[in-house]
Write a structure and sequence with these properties.
774 residues; alpha+beta; 30 strands; disordered C terminus
């Protein structure tokens, strides 16, 4: 039995096989085996490999049909005989001491599960181009935030068997996924010398536009999976790195013309950091691609904005920004330029900033003065330019891609046209991807003459009715989140099927039920989804929202029922009032409690109910119908909370949308001890967390005066709740409410009096706690 196994998966790489195999034969360490899995190659790969089979250390296995690189590796791992395995791609090569160095680390450190090395980037002929930046050896530092290579990958089979193994769903980024899993199973070690020669092939399938985008998206999924496995709260995955990768997943899903995947990645970003601007920007971009423009057309239009000629169009120059007026996240700042050089600088925003305040509505042109020299192995696009509004709408106003073909005549100026309104504050950004040498000299901003601004919705204003108008035959999707609802689930589904106005889609999301709910749902002709583990109502509702195809969304809990006219009543209401986003009908509560619930939305014409929503629930979800596009625009439900997620949804939605209602009873809400609504304390605490969170968001990104108003409202509501508890003599609830004071933006002036009433004696020290600490 060999002491080290090299596993090679091959598909149509015949021109490079000789050098790859020979690099193994030339090793100073000779106690190895080479297992080659040919994935049904159509070239002469097998004939070339057979020349080496006279060496009994080399084994060849042929697959009957091509199933992909990852499946080939999985198959090969069943054939290796050593306890230590290293991967070698069939178009790359090892340095002469690679196996010896890797084996020595494994042998001397039994606890080490994974060993990596530095690598040498080579051209198509294996001529050295550059070596990866030298970094210290690591044992305990998490690899997920280490920017560095992942070859030469070698690991102990015992460690691999303690993981879920290679995942065939992670395409063109299976190395990321495997490394993260191995790192979780055992300590890792990086050899600080290059042991691997990585051939950069412009014709490589993984470097083609589509596989490359799939790879970026898969790496985002792999990193997100690692974040979830390691436990979100205590995860060692840096949030900023994860958000950046998820944003890339959104971008490349749009490139692939898969807006549903873009929205899915945006929701993952929101789940990771619901209060980060980048999460909402990602969702805005995804929804824009899904709802307003086909992704391919959207990108084509933006790409066409970039040109090396015509940048000096007629217009009034407003400002010339020298590099001293811009900031850099990547390159070294010099007096007159920013220079970005691979290996010395991290990829990212090379130039950004300027912070220019627009004083007049109109169309503008930003001219970027850049020197760009693309390498012969550059992957498209070389540089991405965009104009970002950082004050009012917090979104990208224009974006363009610079490709290798755009650089053929060596232009120095590139421009983007965008529309902006008075009060917008813009910054100019160039995203550099390490595929070129880039030198930035400055940005010139012009106002184009005689060009009218396009219609755009202002922040916090109701969008024009035509943007929200549902088709006359709007499709309706019904979403049922279910956790251990077997007792009543069938009755809920039957009430949908009995509607006088039929629905177009029923989606049941089983939240890892243990009582047979899943099996009950299987009896019906509907879309049935199942969460891997119990993730909460917000998560399940968002899963359904992502899969829904309808223009209108209705919600029904597994323990509630609709009356036959429910769907008909609410669809007619939204058709009558196209300017409204959400429609509500009255609900009859039955079971342990019996009462009529009309909610806080007044009947009649659509109205703004934000402050009503801020005070209390405007209505239950089962009595509502909402336009899907609006739900996506705000990111759906909060997935991290378990209580009052509908309160938060209506609060965020009512800020810029109108609600309409009728007092007609169309649904029945079953009241029983097992439901979340029965947990009053948890519900109330969640209300204050959401209010606090909304205040923080507005304080950071919105109107300062509006944030002050919210601050005062929160204090007023807290006083009212405290007074109510005091009047009813509920001392335990009084103390509970007093314990929520860290969630108040500002302590009331009479806090000492309330402390005495609550029985705590005196004011507690003021602490800045997380909104999830209470």
């Amino acid at each position: 039995m060999a002491r080290f196994s090299v596993l090679m998966a091959n598909y149509n790489n015949a021109p490079f096989l000789d050098e790859a195999i020979q690099s193994v034969l030339d090793q100073t360490f000779q106690d190895w085996e080479l297992v080659i899995v040919d994935d049904a190659s159509r070239d002469d790969s097998v004939e070339r490999i057979r020349r080496y089979l006279k060496d009994d250390r080399i084994q060849l296995y042929r697959k009957g049909r091509n199933e992909g690189y990852t499946k080939a590796l999985i198959f090969g791992l069943t054939k290796v005989s050593s306890s230590i395995v290293g991967f070698l791609d069939s178009d790359d090569a090892l340095t002469i001491n690679a196996i010896g160095r890797a084996h020595a680390v494994h042998a001397q450190n039994p606890e080490i599960g994974l060993v990596l090395s530095q690598i040498i980037y080579c051209d198509a002929h294996l001529n050295s181009l550059e070596m990866t930046v030298t970094r210290p050896e690591h044992r305990k530092v998490p690899l997920v935030w280490m920017i560095g290579p992942n070859h030469f990958r070698s690991f102990k089979m015992a460690t691999y068997k303690n993981t879920a193994g290679l995942d065939v769903r992670i395409k063109h980024a299976e190395d990321w996924d495997l490394i993260f899993k191995l790192e979780e199973a055992a300590p890792t070690f990086r050899i600080n010398d290059p042991l691997y020669r990585y051939r950069i092939l412009k014709t490589s399938p993984s470097h083609a536009p589509r596989p490359y985008s799939i790879g970026i998206r898969s790496s985002a999924q792999a990193l997100y999976n690692a974040y979830r496995r390691r436990g979100r709260a205590g995860s060692d995955v840096p949030q900023h790195a994860l958000l950046a990768r998820l944003a890339a997943g959104v971008r490349h899903s749009i490139v692939l013309n898969e807006p549903a995947q873009a929205i899915a990645f945006a929701f993952r970003a929101l789940r990771v950091a619901p209060l980060q601007h980048s999460s909402w920007r990602a969702l805005h971009r995804a929804v824009q691609a899904a709802v307003r423009l086909p992704a391919a057309r959207w990108f084509a239009l933006n790409a066409s904005c970039i040109a090396g000629h015509g940048a000096e169009a007629e217009g009034t120059m407003l400002r010339s920004f020298a590099m001293s007026a811009l900031q850099s996240k990547t390159g070294n700042i010099e007096p007159d330029c920013v220079v970005c050089i691979p290996l010395l600088h991290k990829k990212g925003h090379c130039i950004y900033g300027a912070d220019f305040l627009i004083s007049e509505d109109g169309t503008y042109r930003a001219v970027f003065e850049l020197d760009i020299i693309a390498y012969d192995f550059a992957i498209e696009p070389v540089v991405v330019l965009d104009i970002y509004e950082n004050l009012c709408v917090n979104t990208v106003l224009a974006e363009g891609l610079i490709k290798v073909a755009d650089l053929e005549d060596r232009p120095r100026t590139f421009h983007l046209d965008f529309t902006a309104k008075k009060g917008h504050r813009v910054e100019f950004r160039a995203f550099w991807r390490e595929q070129s040498f880039l030198k930035g000299h400055g940005v010139v901003l012009r106002k184009l003459n005689g060009v009218a601004i396009t219609a755009a919705s202002e922040r916090n204003k109701v969008a024009p009715p035509e943007e929200r108008r549902a088709p006359a035959t709007a499709r309706v999707s019904v979403i049922i989140p279910c956790y251990n609802g077997a007792r009543w689930l069938a009755e809920a589904i039957d009430s949908i099927l009995a509607q006088t106005r039929g629905v177009d889609e029923i989606i049941v999301i089983d939240d890892a039920s243990t009582d047979g709910s899943y099996e009950i749902a299987q009896r019906y002709d509907l879309t049935l989804l199942r969460n891997a583990h119990n993730s909460g109502e917000g998560f399940s509702r968002n899963v359904g929202l992502r899969h829904a195809k309808g223009d209108l969304i209705s919600w029904l809990d597994a323990d509630d029922i609709w009356l036959p006219q429910h769907v008909s009543t609410l669809t007619k209401l939204l058709e009558r009032y196209p300017e409204a986003t959400a429609a509500f009908a009255a609900v009859q509560r039955f079971g342990l409690r019996n009462e009529l619930i009309r909610g806080h939305v007044p009947p009649g014409k659509p109205s703004n109910v934000f402050w009503l929503a801020f005070q209390d629930w405007v209505h239950t979800t089962i009595g509502s119908m909402t336009r899907r596009s609006a739900l996506l625009s705000i990111g759906g439900f909060d997935e991290q909370e378990r209580y009052s997620v509908d309160f938060d949804l209506w609060l965020r939605l009512s800020r810029s949308h109108l609600f309409v209602s009728t007092y007609e009873v169309t649904s029945k809400w079953r009241w029983h001890d097992a439901q979340q609504s029965a947990h009053q304390a948890e519900q109330v605490a969640a209300l204050y967390r959401f209010r606090r969170r909304y205040w923080e968001r507005e304080k950071e990104t919105g109107d300062a005066g509006f944030a002050v108003e919210i601050e005062a409202r929160i204090a007023h509501l807290w006083r009212e709740d405290m007074q109510s508890a005091w009047d009813s003599g509920d001392s335990s609830h009084l103390r509970f409410l007093y314990g929520l004071t860290p969630l108040l933006p500002k302590l009331p002036s009479d806090i000492h009096a309330w402390a005495i009433r609550a029985g705590v004696g005196k004011d507690p020290p003021r602490k800045h706690l997380s909104v999830r600490d209470c």
